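Form 7-S
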Amino acid sequence: MPNFPNSILVTGASGAQGSAIVSACRAAGPTVRVLLRKGSPDPFGDGVNIVRGDLADPGRLALACLGVDAVALTLPVGASPEEILRYGRNIAEAAQQGGVKLLVFNTSGHVSGHSGTAVMDAKAELIDYIKTFGPPSIVLKPTLAMSNIAAPWSAPAIMHQGVLAYPLPTNFQTSWISWQDMAAYVVEALRHPELAGASFDIGGPQALTGPEMAVILSGIVGREVSYYPVPLADFAAALETMLGKDAAEQTAASYAWIHSQKQTVLAVDLGQTTRLLPVKPTSFADWARALDWAALAGDAKAA
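Output:
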């Protein structure tokens, strides 16, 4: 593609989302540079340029942005609202000053302005800041990650108890998305700098309820699976043990906001998006069939 950048900086590269973006960008052919914290392992090896530093260090960001055509921005999971704004402003300013031609911001979740939730409001404010002070930009707002269903806190319950537990009401329809498809959307956005200024809600090809997902999983994992809508209080308590009190409260608040919306708030109409960013996203069933659920559940026989 003539418009595809020759070089791309990927932030958050060592995380699940960032590493998927790195893989997708490498497959597309440009030179890929990643920002990795000092002392952290290099999971990429030959073929990826490494700049040591982080989003809190404007000097290292200026170096990372030097000579690259585009930036694929993903912020750290669990970043506080203050960190979202500080990190995002730092990279936007470094990219603008470095002559970056396009910034693609993966918001790592649904964003609505004036939601009253600290994390979403910070991301909405950051989007406005990037549009005003950063280079030309495209914003991608994914729904929920399919990998949440296969996480260590989810897969064992599916396999051992036949329960798919998630903090969404039973009737909520969600266009779940895989990390690989999210990365494919990033690559397609990088191919289309003429779309600068646009924002896209991205998700999978189907809007499924929890019970519908449970039926699909029942046919894949070899046992009947039922859906359990986890109460928000229980969800927040479980998160606190993993993320700490502040991050848990912020995440739970975002889910509480989702609960207050229409049941289709996370159901994405991909019609126009697909015309502009031609990605064919993976269905939940196809994604689930490709996994080794016994291994994900920690079953000894899978070892």
